[in-house]
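Why should sequence recovery work at all? Because a backbone constrains its sequence more than one might expect. Tight turns favour small or flexible residues, buried strands favour hydrophobic ones, and helices have their own preferences. The token representation captures these environments compactly. In the example below, the structure is given first.
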């Protein structure tokens, strides 16, 4: 006992280790939420440790990409440098692409 189980990824309540039996009598380890009945932790080796490791395996949260003032400023800068007046559609498309790429580059740079 004693291995730490992360809380349920769906509702955040505690989870607990359980053991059942397969039809052939072999043990079946799994983790279940004590609140919402979410179940998981199936592991290839069918071990208690494997089920706990599988339950605790989480994908890191994706950082939301928000439009910041810096991104807007960068876009404005590119927009005026591009001088959209008198451009044909392909050229305007290119200006917008540059604005978006600059904004994304800025966002990626600021989140590190
Ligand atoms: Zn839950």
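From this structural description, the recovered sequence reads:
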């Amino acid at each position: 006992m004693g291995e730490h189980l992360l809380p349920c990824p769906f509702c955040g309540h505690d989870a607990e280790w359980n053991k059942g039996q397969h039809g052939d009598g072999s043990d079946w380890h799994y983790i279940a939420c004590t609140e919402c009945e979410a179940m998981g932790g199936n592991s290839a080796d069918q071990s208690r440790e494997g089920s706990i490791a599988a339950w605790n395996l989480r994908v890191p949260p994706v950082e939301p990409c928000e439009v910041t003032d810096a991104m807007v400023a960068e876009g404005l800068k590119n927009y005026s440098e591009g001088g959209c007046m008198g451009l044909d559609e392909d050229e305007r498309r290119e200006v917008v692409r540059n604005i978006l790429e600059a904004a994304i580059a800025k966002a990626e740079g600021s989140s590190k």
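A few observations help interpret the result. The pocket of zinc ion is lined by residues 8, 10-11, 13, 33, 35-36, 38 (CB under 6 Å).
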